[in-house]
Amino acid sequence: xxxxxxxxxxxxxxxxLENIKKLREMTGVGFKDCKIAxxxxxxxxxxxxxxxxxxxIAKASKKMxxxxxxxxxxxxxxxxxxxxxxxxxxxxxxxKNKDFISLCKEISEICFIQKGDLEKVNSYTxxxxxxxxxxxxxxxxxxxxxxxxRRAKFFDxxxxxxxxxxxxxxxxxxxxxxxxxxLSETSNAKEVGNKIAMHIAASNPLSIDQKTLKKDLxxxxxxxxxxxxxxTGKPVEIxxxxxxxxxxxxxxxxxxxxxxxxxxxxxxxxxxxKETKVLDFVRYKVGEGV
Length: 290
Prior knowledge:
Elements: H1 2-27, H2 31-40, H3 45-54, E1 70-78, E2 81-89, H4 92-95, H5 98-113, H6 118-123, H7 132-143, E3 148-155, E4 161-167, E5 174-175, E6 177-183, H8 187-203, H9 215-230, H10 236-254, E7 260-261, E8 264-268, H11 269-273, E9 278-285
Helix pairs in contact: 1-2, 1-3, 2-3, 5-7, 9-10
């Protein structure tokens, strides 16, 4: 019994050390503070990040969005229509496997045909007369690792022009980050469309503008900002004033139209777009948020 208890303790310690490592990578905070945060939140990484931010120990960072998977994102473009699909694996080793890449390519073609409808994609019969779903099961059995058709989206060419960008491309139209943007049809759109898609890949906006930013996200950010300021001992009235400014900064940094243009920080993205309207956009980073 004693030996079994020791093994359990070792496993628990190993798990804690792994979580501390992940939390340090996400926040840049030291070992001790990460351990305290994990202890306070029962090992929940997302809540630990929030805990550290409220204490003023960690600052908001793009790295704080958990990435717990490998895999590939694929884009398919024909006649102005574009589809994107993300297929995740557990390790980078599988993501480089020839069978996995070959399967992903055919699924990307199917995703375009089925306009990003995952249910239809899963039930679609592939070239080997087996459905996508069953082919995934067979590959899982062969490789011994979980593979998931995670998400997909389709952009038609109706009422706009689509542009895409692939970052960290492993092959043509295959990479780790893919961004797509749909713009209103203007002469300026054709000039800046691909650059805006590249900007999205680099800057990771959460919405087009403040109106389309989720209210619960804004409320949560305000809660964290106020808690951090109150922990410094500042009076409530000062906290209220400063928190509004900090929230406005958060909104500017995370809404596409208000972001600084990556090619010239003196400009906003809205300045570059001029009269061109953003109709929709998406950014897939493999494994993000898993």
